[in-house]
């Protein structure tokens, strides 16, 4: 039978006009969330990304029902769980979602298996028999790669293993939506990488919608189908990793996602005049603009190149980074970072070089916007 046509049915989480202020000791208030709008489709892996204090945890906890926003609306699976104007605020335990915390939040006096079984035992409105529950627990533990550790207590497990238990506990309910609050930040780099890959595989397999908080942009790029970049409680951009990297909506997003070189420019015929000469671009952002380009987009050459723009400078350092070689180029007052993939021995310290730029690789942002962000 065909499902009825409803616009909300494919939306897993819909956040509209959400606002939340916190009161400081001195009585003043800070907006932790400032008019956030996000529509997350079913099966997406959405990452909330931003620096410390930008409001990502508060936004996640609002979806979970652990914070009460001031105003706005939240739906989960088409059901309104919060509506400030209508006075709706569904309790955390009645929202159809699971959450994985940074701190694992395991019961120390319960075995791993008991920790995973806990949400099943305490599920509202469903009486399950013991063997079905135990089977579900065993499946969940196996799914996260610790099928043999169910009898261990949290204190007997490594950080990575404890986080796997927490993950199994989130999966055991078969929730459509799983919220993650920096779940990988307490495990070491190697384990984190493994867990990321496994988490993605599990998300594809179980088919849940993930909403994942991190301040790590590489983690965001790797996990996300779409990234919501937050600044001061506002969603600056909501797009695929490709979009936020290649077409950042604001200077803030451009600088937060990846590395940039920066030049100040004044509008001229064909582009912007900088301290290094004319940088050609058809993008226009007012009389004075900040021009940014990624380190991998500068092309080094000994002779003046016939790219749209060419900036003269000299190499002051060469750093081999494994995947690429970083050339630091002093160009007038500017210290530019240029990346060449692999190991490059084309230029050495002291060499005069040109940095070639294609027109499409120059990102242009209005200058006064940058000043507002200071
Ligand atoms: P982090 O990565 O450091 O956890 P975040 O992006 O998750 O940061 P939030 O924890 O959501 O940011 O905090 C957003 C803002 O709200 C910050 O200015 C913070 O100081 C403030 N804030 C958060 N929780 C409270 C609280 N319980 N009482 C008062 N202010 C709070």
Give me the secondary-structure topology.
Elements: E1 11-23, E2 29-41, E3 45-49, H1 56-64, E4 71-76, E5 79-83, E6 88-89, E7 97-100, H2 112-121, H3 130-143, H4 159-171, E8 177-181, H5 189-206, E9 209-214, H6 217-223, E10 226-231, E11 234-239, H7 241-246, H8 251-256, E12 261-268, E13 271-274, E14 277-280, E15 288-293, E16 299-301, E17 309-320, E18 324-331, E19 334-341, E20 352-357, E21 363-366, H9 367-373
Parallel strand pairs: 3-9, 3-10, 7-8, 8-9
Antiparallel strand pairs: 1-2, 1-4, 4-5, 5-6, 10-11, 12-13, 12-15, 13-14, 15-21, 16-20, 17-18, 17-20, 18-19
Helix pairs in contact: 2-3, 2-4, 3-4
The chain binds adenosine-5'-triphosphate.
- Helix-strand string: EEEHEEEEHHHEHEHEEHHEEEEEEEEEEH
Spans with pLDDT under 50 lasting ≥5 residues? none
Query: What structural category arises from helix and sheet content?
Result: alpha+beta
Which molecules are bound in this entry?
A: adenosine-5'-triphosphate
User: End-to-end distance, in Å?
Assistant: 56 Å
Major beta sheet, strand line-up: 7-8-9-3-10-11
**Percent range of helical residues:** 10-25%
| Proportion of residues in extended strands | 35-45%
Main sheet: strands, sense, barrel: 6 strands, mixed
Number of strands: 21
Mass-distribution shape: globular
Task: Count up the helices.
Answer: 9
The average pLDDT score comes to 90
Rg, alpha carbons: 25 Å
């Amino acid at each position: 039978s065909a499902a009825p046509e409803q616009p909300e049915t494919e939306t897993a989480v819909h956040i509209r006009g959400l606002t939340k202020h916190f009161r400081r000791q001195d009585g003043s208030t800070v907006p932790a969330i400032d008019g956030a709008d996000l529509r997350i489709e079913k099966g997406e892996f959405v990452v909330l990304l931003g620096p410390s204090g930008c409001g990502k945890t508060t936004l996640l906890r609002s979806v979970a029902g652990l914070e009460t926003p001031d105003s706005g609306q939240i739906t989960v699976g088409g059901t309104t769980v919060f509506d400030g104007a209508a006075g709706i605020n569904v309790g955390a335990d009645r929202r159809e979602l699971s959450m994985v915390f940074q701190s694992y939040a395991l019961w120390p006096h319960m075995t791993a298996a008991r920790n995973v079984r806990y949400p099943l035992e305490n599920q509202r409105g469903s009486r399950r028999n013991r063997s079905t529950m135990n089977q579900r627990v065993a499946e969940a533990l196996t799914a996260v790669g610790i099928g043999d550790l169910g009898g261990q207590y949290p204190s007997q497990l490594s950080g990575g293993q404890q986080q796997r238990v927490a993950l199994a506990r989130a999966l055991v309910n078969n929730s459509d939506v799983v919220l993650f609050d920096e779940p990988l930040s307490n495990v070491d780099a190697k384990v984190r990488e493994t867990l990321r890959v496994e988490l993605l595989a599990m998300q594809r397999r179980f088919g849940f919608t993930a909403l994942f908080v991190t301040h790590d942009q590489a983690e965001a790029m790797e996990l996300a189908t779409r990234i919501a970049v937050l600044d001061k409680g506002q969603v600056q951009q909501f797009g695929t990793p490709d979009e936020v990297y290649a077409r950042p909506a604001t200077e803030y997003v451009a600088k937060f996602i990846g590395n940039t070189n920066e030049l100040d420019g004044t509008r001229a015929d064909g582009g912007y005049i900088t301290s290094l000469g004319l940088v050609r671009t058809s993008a226009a952002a007012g009389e004075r603009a900040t021009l940014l380009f990624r380190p991998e987009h500068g092309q080094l050459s000994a002779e003046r190149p016939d790219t749209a723009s060419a900036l003269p400078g000299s190499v002051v350092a060469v750093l081999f980074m494994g995947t690429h070689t970083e050339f630091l180029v002093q160009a007038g007052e500017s210290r530019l970072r240029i990346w060449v993939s692999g190991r490059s021995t084309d230029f050495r310290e002291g060499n005069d070089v040109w940095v070639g730029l294609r027109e499409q690789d120059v990102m242009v942002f209005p200058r006064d916007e940058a000043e507002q962000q200071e």
